[in-house]
């Protein structure tokens, strides 16, 4: 009895552990014996509409270490000779090692991405493998076009704790998109990380690779962007602060969206250097995407006032209005900018010559609410669906909104200012391009977007506005007249297809005026709509319109005879 | 050569008979099972040492072989000659334990070894056999059926117990106590007395764990004292008082224990409370054994064992290697082996020609049963970690020799029972 009782008890307990809970313990033993060493997935490339490479991945040799492998003091000794060869200063790495050791987290820490030959030699001399440091080939992000399209492409960064929480399958040190398309399309670009399961003993010493789960490369993401046009816009903006946008008038796909000053997304691939950081923090804010910032649209807004005038029923496409040197309102004179009137003119001439007094009268007659209403219908202040983050939309305050926002009553002068796109009116270059596209595509308000895959997205479907075709026709003719004989004659020199457009020159509180231009081309069968804003640069016709010209030139592949696009370089090694 | 001639056959049978004659009453099952366990121990230690390339498995086998030879040698001699030497043995046992205090080697916070001729000897292991012989000798002449005799036996046990306890080796102390209780029980001590002896310890534990159970226990002990002791009323009251007091004393005793002992004692209940510290051992051991499932992972295939997840695995935690690599079937066979050993020892005790021999077998049984239960129990979370090795399986030369010494004595008892005439 005394013998059998304890032995039976042991037998029952063994049965419980080995038979009942055996599978569970088997799993724990499997967990014990292996470590996962992540293998990065190659991030998918970002391509323009023709497959030209905007962002790609190239192979680089990175160095990783296993923080628990050595004592902090030993790591310090190991890393000190590598100072200056690593991504980060040695003390920063040591701090991270100390943190990891405290929490018992032995996931690899990357100490260098694309290690230098010198670091490679030092690592070899130090017998890195036994010390718990290894070198791994992995893909590194590369942006062949530098600062071109930086605001669209965005940049990448190492996943932070929030990213890891949101996506638990990501290993430490994973690269994720931080801004722009890199973030917008992160899910598709990311791919799936693979891992080596490595046999590991109680001390964490790694043995042979037990098995490998291969990484799955991220998908390529194609944009609606046209790289030559984008390049031309960026080049034309050089030396200015401002933005230039081109969109497909039928789909709303963004063909170009440049903002200057810009930055180089390559800076974010490795750790940002001091000078790069300083450049990013410059007072003219290179990280700001000016295509998504509101500007006073100035005379480009007359397109909206025209449509509001006609669609509100107060005028018709054949209406003529007497213009004069100035009109008086409440004892205040509102002048024509040319100093004299143009006589009794219709909408076409009013647009072509940019008559102020013509639009003052429309504004006074139809009132600010009507202008705001049609402005909104045409695309100003509509929710931004780009998904780039950080952008703003324009605003068209009505008297009630002015009271609410600024605590001030509405004056007659406000209406006058509004009718010519000054005062409280703000529109982003992207919205102005949308307005033009809507006018010239037959009255469907397009929804600007960047991903080629979004063309068929119901969210991005153009919205019919119901604007009378005759109204659109007269405005479009007015815009073409502007190029033919009006304020944008600079575009009518025959080097590019005939186009339509509208200049604007916005007085701003300090410095020179902002130069504005909106337009479309070709005049007869429009393909793209453009909008340009250049801060403190002078006249729209003199500064902004030539930028549009460069964009058209690039888009229509002039003057260089339309060379076939080069095949995209191999993005996979 | 006429190898099959009648003469030759006769010679052979006579020769063989003469050869095994000295062991003709030997318990061959007992011998075979202990040898098998030793061999299994060697294999398991080899598995533990696969990566490190140690040779403890070989030493284990060699020591085992020496032990078997020694056991067979002892079995030839008449154990009853030792009866006269019982007090010399007692003296030598205590002297060797004192020697550990003076010239011992410290390991793992305890002084357990003395070095003799280059070998590290653990006197506390041999003290087990020494105590068996002494107590068996005492009870041979006069059984423990009287209280004075009982207290004499307890007194004799106390000295080596104290010497081992201060080494400190809690595990061996418990083995000595177990030997004492075992021979007392077999030596006609009233079971109630033994129960009463243990009762303060039980009371102390119950007091801290579950108060109503403690009250019930106190009452039960009062009744036991009433039934088993003379002067019923004062005895019963005394038993009740002692159990009441020891409830409170339990805490005081607890404070006497060293920290590592406390942690070892409580950790087995919930090792997850300190998975990287005191509970690590227990958790890894359970994972190893549990993951063996029915058939085990196969020899040298246990990941927990091969990748050194269990510290001191060749000694106290050797059963984890067996459980992992040979599974439930292998573990059950080991249990069966120990059960057989115990059963044979009981048989020997029953068939012994005198009380001395019978008690030697029971003392040996106490060692084997207690150590096997507590050691295996600790690897599977049924008992606290007490540093008790698994007989014949754990690596440890002194322990191995002690075990075979005890088996040898038991075999001598078997061998020297009434001769079968032929």
Structure commentary:
The complex is a heterodimer of chains A (573) and B (422). With 573 residues, chain A is α+β, with helices and mostly antiparallel strands. Chain A folds into 2 domains: 34-199 and 218-222, Penicillin-binding protein 2a (Domain 2), CATH 3.90.1310; 227-555, Beta-lactamase. Chain A has 20 helices and 21 strands. In chain A, the strands form 7 sheets. In chain A, strands 2, 3, 4, 5 and 10 form a 5-stranded mixed β-sheet that branches. In chain A, helix 13 packs across helix 15 and helix 15 (356-378) crosses helix 17 (412-419). The radius of gyration of chain A is 31 Å and the shape is elongated. The model of chain A is unreliable at 560-573 (pLDDT under 50). Chain B has 16 helices and 3 strands. Chain B has helices at residues 6-20, 28-48, 56-76, 86-103, 123-141, 147-165, 170-186, 191-209, 211-228, 232-256, 259-267, 280-291, 303-306, 318-351, 355-379, 397-415, and strands at residues 105-107, 110-116, 119-121. In chain B, strand 1 (105-107) and strand 2 form a beta hairpin. In chain B, helix 8 runs antiparallel to helix 9 (211-228), helix 9 crosses helix 10 and helix 15 (355-379) runs antiparallel to helix 16. Chain B is globular and about 80 Å long. Chains A and B meet through helix 1 and helix 2 of A and helix 12, helix 14 and helix 15 of B.
Keywords:
heterodimer; A: 573 residues; alpha+beta; Beta-lactamase; 5-stranded mixed β-sheet; 5-stranded antiparallel β-sheet; 20 helices; 35% helix; disordered C terminus; B: mainly alpha; 3-stranded antiparallel β-sheet; 16 helices; 70% helix; globular
In summary, what is this structure?
Chain A has 573 residues and is of the alpha+beta class.
Secondary structure elements and pairings:
The complex is a heterodimer of chains A (573) and B (422).
Chain A: H1 4-20, H2 22-33, E1 34-39, E2 46-47, E3 53-65, H3 72-79, H4 90-103, E4 109-112, H5 117-125, H6 128-131, E5 133-142, H7 150-153, E6 156-158, H8 161-166, E7 175-177, H9 180-184, H10 186-190, E8 194-200, E9 206-213, E10 221-222, H11 227-237, E11 242-248, E12 254-260, H12 274-280, H13 302-311, E13 321-322, E14 326-329, E15 332-335, E16 344-345, H14 347-353, H15 356-378, H16 399-406, H17 412-419, H18 429-440, E17 444-445, E18 463-464, H19 469-484, E19 500-506, E20 514-521, E21 528-534, H20 540-555
Parallel strand pairs in A: 2-10
Antiparallel strand pairs in A: 1-8, 2-3, 3-4, 3-5, 6-7, 8-9, 11-12, 11-21, 13-16, 14-15, 17-18, 19-20, 20-21
Chain B: H1 6-20, H2 28-48, H3 56-76, H4 86-103, E1 105-107, E2 110-116, E3 119-121, H5 123-141, H6 147-165, H7 170-186, H8 191-209, H9 211-228, H10 232-256, H11 259-267, H12 280-291, H13 303-306, H14 318-351, H15 355-379, H16 397-415
Antiparallel strand pairs in B: 1-2, 2-3
